[in-house]
Amino acid sequence: MHSAERLDSGHLPPPPPPPPPSPGRNLPFIGKLKPFYLLSILVLLLAISFSISKTDQFKKLFFLRSNLLNPTVQKQISRNPIYTAPYCVLWMAPFLSGGGYSSEAWSYILALHNYSMNKNPIFNLKIEQHGDLENLEFWEGLPLDMRNLAVELYHRECKLNETVVVCHSEPGAWYPPLFDTLPCPPIGYGHFKAVVGRTMFETDRVNDEHVKRCNLLDFVWVPTDFHVKTFTESGVDPLKIVKIVQPVDLDFFDPVKYEALDLGSLGNSVMGSFSNGEKFVFLSIFKWEYRKGWDVLLRSYLKEFSGGDDVVLYLLTNPYHSDRDFGNKIVEYVEKSDLEEPKDGWARVYVIDEHIAQVDMPRLYKAANAFVLPSRGEGWGRPIVEAMAMTLPVIATNWSGPTEFMTEDNSYPLLVDRMSEVTEGPFKGHLWAEPSVNKLQMLMRHVMRNHEEAKARGTQARDDMMSKFSPEVVAGIVSDHIERIIDHAQ
Ligand SMILES: *[C@@H]1O[C@H](CO)[C@@H](O)[C@H](O)[C@H]1NC(C)=O
Ligand SMILES: *[C@@H]1O[C@H](CO)[C@@H](O)[C@H](O)[C@H]1NC(C)=O
Ligand SMILES: *[C@@H]1O[C@H](CO)[C@@H](O)[C@H](O)[C@H]1NC(C)=O
Description:
Blueprint: H1 3-8, H2 35-49, H3 54-68, H4 71-74, E1 87-93, H5 100-119, E2 123-129, H6 136-140, H7 144-154, E3 163-168, E4 194-198, H8 208-215, E5 219-222, H9 225-234, E6 241-243, E7 268-271, E8 280-287, H10 294-304, E9 311-318, H11 326-336, E10 348-352, H12 361-366, E11 370-373, H13 382-389, E12 394-397, E13 412-414, E14 416-421, E15 431-435, H14 437-449, H15 451-469, H16 471-489
Parallel strand pairs: 1-2, 1-3, 3-4, 4-5, 5-6, 8-9, 8-11, 9-10, 11-12, 12-13
Antiparallel strand pairs: 7-10, 14-15
Helix pairs in contact: 5-16, 10-14
């Protein structure tokens, strides 16, 4: 069901909560205060919110603040002295982590900020770091204009009773958080105009704890029809669920603007012998976890290709509860498998395990001929969408998040063999997809051989991104929904 229908058909958000002690007071974490006062307010705030590991919390908060307040960035802030919109949207997300929620959150605030320049919505946007660790390397790799904008939005002032809070993170980070993070909403429920959760999940269901947390909020935004279904079936109140798709920055991920990165200078050779001829480049980008199907990818690729093929596979990966020794993990996987080395040697595999700054990502995609990710489950699949914006032909598993945007006209949806059980971790027993190894082999070969068709699908991919997931389109959807929340909650 669409949000508009829901709001128009009389299913209003829950009645306004009891008023807080002084509803008009400013949100306490706003950087105009001197550090001393900020510190004392934080002490108070954290003391009332929860009592675990206060010292670590401060260290983290101040790490964040010293980054955001880096003088070279701050010098460039252009403050807008005219403050018109009465309402605020406080968007709390792991802006500084560089992970999936982080890049998603960035794409929303960039889109909303631009939108507000032209459309004068009834709210101002404010941001706050929450929900994951801060990664200094990631922050420093962001374009300067993004860092400046973050500082500007971070300094906006909002009144509690006029603020819609968006908690954009995994539900375990929502108030009261299950781990060490600034809680969202910051001082618990009942003080704000409304609280919205933005989340997603990559298996066939949502666990009971997360369902309970979703149902505490006024609305739960999820990115795809897949999630509308899995969240509803798991017990989240369907009247609270709203599908809000994710934007992709088509101006930034625009292939005509970039020269390809020189792959020769990147990456470590893991399989196959060196050769410097023309090669067809498959690129995959993922965190090193079983869910991402790196085993499926290696198996398909090494079965299909050999040292005699003019092909190379580049894996850009980073650790996920693991060390960085990806080369050895791959070699070990191959040795333990039933894969046999072809007569003319293994096909070439390179691992890029160094940090690639966000500003260089378009150039990395540009250096590839195709993008491939046989994941077992995805919330959305950002690298897939970015590759599509860059007009690459994409092969990815046709299950979960990516079914929202992959079609047979704009990509190569990879068939699922069967569902399989998650065997480890907190989501043990959930189901996700086993992509077909054989079909992946065939699709990779097909994309290499059918250059024109692959190119046409890549072009279609960018067109589809333009019409459905451009920042303007998605900012319009978000803005409309927020305005409805504000109107109905008055
Ligand atoms: C919020 O509180 C302030 C101060 O108490 C009040 O002036 C303002 O009207 C309130 N705003 C809303 C939307 O209720
Ligand atoms: C925002 O607008 C600027 C200038 O119009 C443009 O260059 C930029 O790409 C836009 N960004 C997004 C995310 O819409
Ligand atoms: C991909 O999955 C969707 C949704 O489950 C289905 O409708 C579609 O036919 C599938 N496409 C392919 C190529 O398998």
